[in-house]
What we know:
The complex is a heterodimer. Chain A is an alpha/beta fold. Chain A is 31% helix and 18% strand. In chain A, strand 8, helix 7 and strand 9 form a beta-alpha-beta unit. In chain A, helix 1 (66-82) packs parallel to helix 4. Chain A is globular and about 70 Å long. Chain B is an alpha+beta fold. Chain B has a single domain, classed as hypothetical protein PF0899 fold, CATH 3.30.2320.80. Chain B has helices at residues 2-21, 41-52, and strands spanning 26-34, 61-67, 69-73, 79-82, 97-101, 105-112. In chain B, helix 1 (2-21) crosses helix 2. The chains are: A alpha/beta, B alpha+beta. Chains A and B meet through strand 2, helix 1, helix 6 and helix 7 of A and helix 1, strand 1, strand 5 and strand 6 of B. Strand 2 of chain A pairs antiparallel with strand 6 (105-112) of chain B.
Amino acid sequence: MCTVCGCSEGEARIEGHDHGHTHHHEQGHGHSHAEPLHDYSQGPAHAHAPGLSQARMVQIEQDILGKNNEYAAANRRWFAERGILVLNLVSSPGSGKTTLLTRTITDLKQALELAVIEGDQQTTFDAERIRDTGVKALQINTGKGCHLDAHMVGHALESLSPGDGSVLFIENVGNLVCPAAFDLGEAHKVAILSVTEGEDKPLKYPDMFHAAGLMILNKIDLLPYVSFDAEKCIGYARRVNPGIKVLQVSATTGEGMDDWYCWLRANRQLAAIGS
Amino acid sequence: MHEMSLCEGVLQVLQDSARQQGFLRVKTVWLEIGALASVDVEAMRFSFDVVVNGSLANGARLEIIGLPGRAWCMPCGQTVSVEQRFDACSECGSYQLQVTGGDEMRIKELEVE
Ligand SMILES: Nc1nc2c(ncn2[C@@H]2O[C@H](COP(=O)(O)OP(=O)(O)OP(=O)(O)O)[C@@H](O)[C@H]2O)c(=O)[nH]1
Ligand SMILES: [Mg+2]
Ligand SMILES: [Zn+2]
Ligand SMILES: [Zn+2]
């Protein structure tokens, strides 16, 4: 339980996070939209009419993820005010997210201000790999949780405090299912798929590829050794998301990385002028 | 896994509404779940019972209303029904479909006291 905002943080642990701070996401817990109360207890409207007790019906009409969406909206406002480009990197475990990030940071850290939030169930290995590059990084351990949520990210921002006009990468927990549903306030989800995973993944995990604005096919240096039909894979991704952009890279050899940097710079410019 | 987090989301909404609308117990929860929301209804029921255990919704009944998947086909302009995100248009065979309904995950109403 977070004593500041009263929300349950579950068992997530955020590096350097204590609850003595103030929240920047001060949207509070009041709901912006009215939730009209309909008391059906007198009327015949519902067959499941109440018995002896004062049971009544309450209309809710609220998204199950409404709470997360409120936090995400607060994060998104916070990013917009500061012109920060935020990318939520999603993939199955081991597709190369951290490798892609460390290479990107090495190549761009002179030109751009960068920061990273790392999400894993356990260990601070990935945050340490990022910090080795000299860029600030914060680890969130989700414990049993299989995805980051917008509330954890809001707290992480308090200690990480990414600078105005910077690029913030959020490496989500390796999982092609749950992170699709949890908006963190990012500009785009970037789905990373390595060629060793098979070209059918966009159809097997359609929600993730539907939610992503960009798909990065990684480990293309391994194409000679695996049977992976890149065109087929891209076709599948477009079936679930006709507008998805696709880049092909090798985070280890550096092939194709310039296209990724162009995409990053273009989106950073958009974030800087405010969307 | 996923359904467990969704049920935690449901419980948060129940707790907030209880505070705002002054009820103490939730007896029934109606959810609307779209066909494209990738929610496993059985897993949802199981997780719900686990998550609400000991809460204001302890023992509550979960009613799930399924909503159909709908999509608009860009090439032919028809609205068609779909079962999966990657279904082809049933009119023209195109995959250029924009989902217009069926990804809902909504708490519709509650029976409370
Ligand atoms: N051949 C090849 N190997 C790569 C490439 N990118 C990453 N790898 C390797 O893939 C393995 C996993 O890479 P990570 O960067 O740790 O993957 P990740 O997605 O961050 O993994 P998790 O955070 O555990 O989900 C490592 O052994 C990397 O060296 C690539 O482009 N080509
Ligand atoms: Mg990693
Ligand atoms: Zn909090
Ligand atoms: Zn059509």
